[in-house]
Amino acid sequence: MTALIRYRPHGAGILDRNKRDGAVLVLGDTMKSASVWSDMSGRGNHGLVYGAGTPPAATPGALGYIFDGVDDYVAIGTDFGSGGFALGARRDINTISLYVTDGWVDFTYTVNINTFYHFAVISDVVVGKTYIYINGVYVGETIKVLTKSFTYSVWALSLSVTTSDRERIFNRNAANDFRIGFFYNEANAWNGSIDEVRIFNRALSATEIKRLYERTRILFGV
Prior knowledge:
By secondary structure, the protein is mainly β. The protein has one domain: Jelly Rolls (Sandwich). The chain is 9% helix and 40% strand. It has two helices and 15 strands. The chain has helices at 12-20, 206-216; strands at 23-27, 36-37, 47-50, 65-68, 73-76, 85-90, 95-100, 103-108, 116-124, 129-134, 137-142, 150-158, 167-174, 177-180, 191-200. β6 (85-90) and β7 form a beta hairpin. The longest helix is centred in the C-terminal third of the chain and has 11 residues, at 206-216. The two termini are 27 Å apart. Mean pLDDT is 86; it is low at 1-16.
């Protein structure tokens, strides 16, 4: 089993290791500007920043980018060949939702505001299931799968309680259009912080997900 590494922003050796580990997108807290969130996977999948800003140090979500819940997002110019995919949340009815290929699957889970959570979604085409883990712990699964095996990992903090629709952390809009923090309109926009985005072109194991969570959680006070 390939061991997960600690991602660092510099050095050809680190980029090569990221590639070998199956990472196709690595967005961290250090390689960001007002216009570009630089990909550290070595694949060149840099994110273009639309409106989202670096949180002030005094705010609860003072890591990553903060999204205003209206029209802020980060656009990645590829969909990684995954097919339909989205990760969203509704805190008014305590659900975390996955859109996999052709429909939504909802999982009951309470996400408190002003608190960072680690979300990991593993779609494994070999076993024919997609799993969701929160803070390194298994939450649920569905028999819906993507067109290829993928793992999505992200830390996110919400600043508000949704009242109408699923606020998006991730959303594959169309071919070559993967967005972080937004889909279509204000009802689907994330209000809060998003950081430490990872996408792998393979299904990580439960042990690897736990290790990834443990290696990053100290950044978020969890």
